[in-house]
Sequence to fold (458 residues):
Amino acid sequence: MGENCAIILAAGDGKRMKSTLPKVLNEVLFEPMLEWVILACENSGLGNLCVVAGYEHEVVERYLGGRHDIALQLERKGTAHAVMQAESFLNKHSASCDNVLILCGDAPFMNEDTITNALKSHTECGNDVTVITALIDDPTGYGRIVRNGDKISAIVEQKEASDKELLIKEVNSGAYWFKISALLSILDEFESDNSQNEFYLTDAISIILNRGGNAGAFTAKDAKIILGANDKRALFNLHKIANDEVINKHFDNGVEFLSLDGVIIGRNVKIGANAKIHSGTIIKGDSVIGEGAVIGPNTIIDNCIIGKDSVLNSVQAYDSTIASDVRIGPFVHIRPNSEIRSGVKIGDFVEIKNSTIGENTSMSHLTYVGDSDVGKNVNFGCGCVTVNYDGCKKSRTIIKDRAFIGCNTNLIAPVTIGEGAYTAAGSTITQDVPDHALAIERGKQNNKEGYALRKIKK
Ligand code: UD1
Ligand code: CA
Fold:
């Protein structure tokens, strides 16, 4: 379908969302609705996209970051008026593309299957326009598809519909395939003589039919494609539908859920068979969870790769890699750019940032490791700190294999602890420690005999 292009209508304000964002940037399952629609186009092989932005269009432009064309609709005068603003995009592509898909930026569940099958029907029937429709039980609010026999004759908006038309359960999804030449030729024929004083794109059907052109309707298999959101309640409903769908896919793949309470999983997440997911677990970004891993309860994993059989309990982990057979938690924060190798054990109240932790290293309690390269089989006592920041710059700490970091050690970076070296509990280490040495840095103990008894007497 490289020969076609798409226009996404996204000028709406989202007043009822009470959002400061343009409506299409409100998120469903951690991704803006607009992103869902863009991805459906890209998955259908539509490379040339134009987003019609209006309300807070700078924000939409910034979000797109030059990925796609933008057309501006500064006054919101209806869906056909929005398409008119993309006239130069249509002209630009009219030589190389035959058809254009028009989509609503606030209907995130439009999908590849519907887009490609609708195009097939559009071209096979030789249509100038093909509207994508769905059959639903409660058509309230949607444009109704009026048919004459089995041919579409018009789309009538809820506000203009007769009592009889209101009973029609086939509705307009707001998505259409047009022959670009046909769409360009009718752009100045829309009128706003309706109850809303808007230029309705739905009038394209009767305009084309009146000129002797061909109009068709393609009914989507999955009525979900028409769903949109005007307020936060509807947005939550979309979010729930998307989340349920993702979780069902993981059930099919053999993932075990002990409870779905508070479980939210982004649609790009991959989870291996026999992984167990506990309640309160949020997994998002491009995360990959290995087979047999146990995640949660109360865990956030954002953009991390987690190996086989690792166990994360009450952990927050971001942009990091955790290998197999690792045990982490409870109450651990793994900050970006960390690599935790296999067999590592990380216990309660540990924070790791921008560090590599070698195989089978253990840090069981109350420790901060930042900007560090830690070797294999290192043992951290309780309460160790890599002091990586002097107020101006950050420096690295290097801890070689089999080192033993005594309880309550401060390692003032930059500093290197040699292979198999020890630091004594309570030491503040400012100089490199040679391989196999013991570094002690603390005052000599001085016992004042009978001090407490003398104090009580006073
Ligand atoms: C529209 C259709 C209706 C269909 C429904 C599907 C028309 C007249 N009606 O109604 O038949 O059932 O979608 O959801 O087209 N937009 C702009 N600029 C505008 C107006 C709208 O960019 O001036 C964008 C909106 O941001 C939105 C999309 O177009 O993404 C649809 O607009 P909306 O106002 O929601 O249309 P509906 O009244 O729902
Ligand atoms: Ca000390």
Observations:
- The chain has a mean pLDDT of 97.
- Residues 253-343 form a domain with the UDP N-Acetylglucosamine Acyltransferase; domain 1 fold (CATH 2.160.10.10).
- The two ends are 94 Å apart (CA to CA).
- The pocket of uridine-diphosphate-N-acetylglucosamine (ligand 1) is lined by residues 9-12, 52, 54, 73, 76-79, 81-82, 104-107, 142-143, 155, 157, 171-174, 200-202, 228 (CB under 6 Å).
